[in-house]
Amino acid sequence: MNPFTLTRAASVDAAVRDFSGHEAAAYIGGGTNLLDLMKENVAHPQHLVGLNKLPLSAIESTTGGGLRLGATASNADTAWHPEVQQRYPLLSQAILAGASPQLRNMATNAGNLMQRTRCYYFYDTATPCNKREPGSGCAAIGGYNRIHAILGTSEHCIATHPSDMCVALAALEAVVQVQGPDGERQIKFEDFHRLPEDHPERDNTLKPGELITGIELPAQGFAENFAYLKLRDRQSYAFALVSVAVGLELDGNTIKEARLALGGVAHKPWRDRAAEDLLKGQPATEATFRKVAEAVLKEAKGQGTNDFKIELAKRAIVRALTQAAAGEQQASDVFTNSNP
Amino acid sequence: MSTDSNTKYVGKAPSRVEGPLKVTGQAKYSAEFDVPDLVYGYVVSSPVAKGKIRKIHADKILALPGVLQVFSHENVPTLAWFDRSYKDDVAPGGSPFRPLQDDEIKFSQQPVALVVAETFELARYAASVLEIEYEQEKHETDVEALREKGQEPGSGKTGYKPPVRRGNADKGLSKAEHRIKQEYVHGTQHHNPMEIFGATVHYHPDGKLTVYDKTQGVFNCQQYLKKVFGLSADKARVVNLFMGGGFGAGLRPQYELYLSVLAALELKRSIRLSLTRQQMFSLGHRPHTLQTVELGTDASGALVGVKHKAVHETSRFEEYTENVVNWSGMLYQCPDVHLEYEVVPLDVFTPLDMRAPGAATGSIGLEVAMDEMAYAAGIDPLEFRRRNYADRDQNEDKPFSSKKLREVYDEGARRFGWDKRKMEPRSMREGNRLVGWGMAGGVWDASMQKAAAKATITADGKLTVSSAAGENGTGTYTVMTQIAAETLGLPMEAVTAKLGDTTLPEAPVQGGSWTAATVGSAVKSVCEALGEKLLKLAQKMDDSPLKGAKPEDVEFVNGLIRLRKEPRQSVVLRDVLQVSGEREIEADSSVMPNPLNMQKYSMHAHNAVFVEVQVDEDLGTIHVTRVVNVVAAGRIINQKTARSQVLGSVVWGISMALMEETVMDHRYGRYLNHNFAEYHVPVNADVRDIEVHFVEEEDPHVNPLGVKGIGEVGLLGVAAAITNAVYHATGKRVRSLPLTIDKLL
Ligand SMILES: Cc1cc2nc3c(=O)[nH]c(=O)nc-3n(C[C@H](O)[C@H](O)[C@H](O)COP(=O)(O)OP(=O)(O)OC[C@H]3O[C@@H](n4cnc5c(N)ncnc54)[C@H](O)[C@@H]3O)c2cc1C
Ligand code: SF4
């Protein structure tokens, strides 16, 4: 870990300015990911801009009927917020399926979007990794890649984005609000994270110095028919091998509107619009769900140790769609009463 | 005889005496001791698995203000020369690793330098920018690829028993009505106690050291310091009062001890050195093991042949051994047995005993194979075990000192409701989940070692008992307190137990589940010796009703010394102390195992585990919903701490079965998931109902206390029972652990 300076910004403007005024600066939210990366010598910021004094922790309704989640609100406060629980239970459940209570208390919403991959090699500086050190090679290809991607990979990187929250946000068509040296802008969630392509060192489309100020959820929350199904190596405190976020709007047994996003399978939360189209207008039956599952995974490519994810993802899609259509409340695999 | 005895503690369930210290943060762990003027060390670990260090560019970081030294093979002083100096009490055969003594890299994450600075942060930063040039050589780390290079080990380490052979297993098997032969594998595991390994070395003005080190054996460490650094016992005191778990990782002196003492002596400064979680994966491990088991039965279900072979890795420099296969010649009756055991030297660090070493591994092979055999023969798995019950230890051809495994089977089956089990796989369901019931069991050595203890009672009636054994968190302080209080008829609150300090009477490393038997016996013996002194003083009192009584005629109960036959004839112990005029009275004693009994009897603890799993077949997820673990381990001194030990064992068993594995990328010869986010152990949500029950055994032969130890036996069979239950649920036999989602899809 290298020496660094720390300031706590009092306003968004000051934060952005402070960032631009320093060499190798980084924003820090709860620090649950960034500090680990610094201790592992993966990240070497020389200056940290602390965000927890910013007036960005509110969760409030928008004029358009949606909900705005402050960038520095904690994952826990967001998940347990009554508006989120009632109107966006998919998001609440996705957050609660992630990490542990202690981590969720510290973690911020913006930090969750920005968290980096859990690829073993990315964390271990004794091995090559294009994301950590562009051009050094990708050790996961041809290595142990049980937790790696099966969709949208490139020859340079096969890492996944590890977030649960973001899978729900993708399905809900959230919008990320940012402010940078060049002013404010809005980024559609789909366009926020990116595929590795030739630049695996870039996880997202944020420009240098841009600060996430909030996340806006549109009015449609799929509170009746939704599911977040997370498959992992233990019941809590483990990242998803595969996760599925589903939101459905039903007319009787016919699907009117559908959202489907996967976690643990790609460099970004994997929303599949073609699959959503395949669902629309169709009866909510197992046959429909199987067809959709096959379609989502058609282009999937295993890397060896993660081959099983292709079949697992298909089954998870069918299960999550079935649960969402049935209106079952807790879709997660946890069958104790709540997610500990 | 009166039975009103509040000071009868043995067999009850008092809470752990050090509990309040632990929950209020007053219990100090080795890297927490406050010592003035500390400097801090940080270890640099090798990124390569094999090769040479070409150059260490220390100049740049030595120029940083506050960096005191970079220790490496380039500047380390000449220390002991011979291998034997580096051998500790539990070292296997070979040449122990000597940190920083030459330029050779023998395993990935080998410590190659120690940076010492005025602050921890500075030491860590300097370590991160220290440039080291390596010359990499080709390494070999894959035991599966190199299994053919396995060789039967030499004498190995203390306690190693060469594989047993008797009768003619091939001939027996050739006549079998039913036969199975299968291979079982589990990956590498690391002990991973919660508390990180660390040491605080206090360098006193006179050059003496007090070394607070995380270890399961303070004397083992003191001896090591003596042989390696020439520090006589009065020069280096080693202390470890509490431990946040050891699981075997603290059996041998680890490199934080060597490095911190080296730096303290060279710099003449007090130093603190804490490893990182990643470095905890460089302290030894349970080896990746391949097992082949072949069984056969006759028409009645009697075993007619047992073959069991195990192969695992060791390092290039030491021949690590554990007893994996011999249990297969002992747990069941069979005249024709052929066991084999081989190790393959690889470019890894030496494995290290971990939670029921050998037996935990062997019981997976044997007990899953027994289940497969039961199915092949069409016999209920429990009934099959009953039919092959061993009334005698056939390995040693001796009777057991006691063995209530039949009662364990009965009790476990009754508590679990085994009679309601349908034999056929996939025959039980709950909702959309498949339900499976499986069972397995195990056997573990009941050991005792030589140990000494001291007891001191002061005029105010307060007793202190001490012995230098370790406290792993198992409950040793509490058990000592109970035994001492009961032996001298004092309330537990009047007794203080001391452990983990080389200024106390000598005791062995804490391991092998022998501490209760060993230290407990020593405490009992020393309290009896003190009791005799107190009786003599009591008899000197005017009008003493105890005059002429022999030690065996009196008992110490409720603060009194009284005649066994006439309990009303008593004196108050406090009065004895007051009248004696002595400020304190003390006694020393030491105990050792009875060699005659050891020759005559086979001494073992047994258990049986019954497990229910629920499996979501589509998604490959497994939930262990119910576990009943019944243990026969002689007498139970503390029902609460004993139960906690077995609860912990079950959790570790779930861990072994479903989660734990350190994965190595053989291209780099390096463990990949060396952190707690990716090295999975169970969390609360993974652990459901666990029922623990003890079938107590009266065993006059095993040791004076009649205890067999419960630290490890509870782990045996858990992983196998889960594997068997998953088969019963799904009809799918998975023979490679951990049993993760991908293996069940
Ligand atoms: C052991 C473990 C298990 C976990 N398990 C899960 C899991 O199962 N599922 C899951 O989803 N997550 C999991 N997490 C990850 C956790 O959710 C993230 O660490 C957390 O959300 C990050 O939030 P933070 O505020 O602490 O971010 P920080 O660590 O503070 O920052 C992370 C990144 O975000 C940047 N950043 C922070 N705020 C802003 C901002 N406002 N604008 C721009 N950039 C910003 C920082 O510069 C940094 O690069 C786990 C973490 C750990 C350590
Ligand atoms: S998958 Fe990506 S993050 Fe992992 S080693 Fe390859 S380049 Fe690095």
From TrEMBL, chain A:
Keyword Kinase listed: no
Keyword Flavoprotein belongs to the record: yes
GO molecular function term, any single one: oxidoreductase activity
Domain FAD-binding PCMH-type residues, every copy: 1-222
UniProt keywords, alphabetically: FAD, Flavoprotein
Annotated Gene3D superfamilies: 3.30.465.10, CO dehydrogenase flavoprotein, C-terminal domain, Uridine Diphospho-n-acetylenolpyruvylglucosamine Reductase, domain 2
SUPFAM superfamilies: CO dehydrogenase flavoprotein C-terminal domain-like, FAD-binding/transporter-associated domain-like
Alphabetized SMART domains for the sequence: CO_deh_flav_C
Domain of life: Bacteria
InterPro entries: CO_DH_flav_C, CO_DH_flav_C_dom_sf, Diverse_Substr_Oxidored, FAD-bd_PCMH, FAD-bd_PCMH-like_sf, FAD-bd_PCMH_sub1, FAD-bd_PCMH_sub2, Mopterin_DH_FAD-bd
Protein name: Xanthine dehydrogenase family protein subunit M
Organism field: Hymenobacter jeollabukensis
From TrEMBL, chain B:
SUPFAM superfamilies, alphabetized: CO dehydrogenase molybdoprotein N-domain-like (SSF54665), Molybdenum cofactor-binding domain (SSF56003)
SMART domains from the UniProt entry: Ald_Xan_dh_C
MF GO annotations: iron ion binding; oxidoreductase activity
Region named Disordered: 144-170
A matching Pfam family: MoCoBD_2
Domain (Aldehyde oxidase/xanthine dehydrogenase a/b hammerhead): residue spans on this chain: 24-138
Domain of life: Bacteria
Signal peptide: none
Protein's name according to its UniProt entry: Xanthine dehydrogenase family protein molybdopterin-binding subunit
Source organism of this protein record: Hymenobacter jeollabukensis
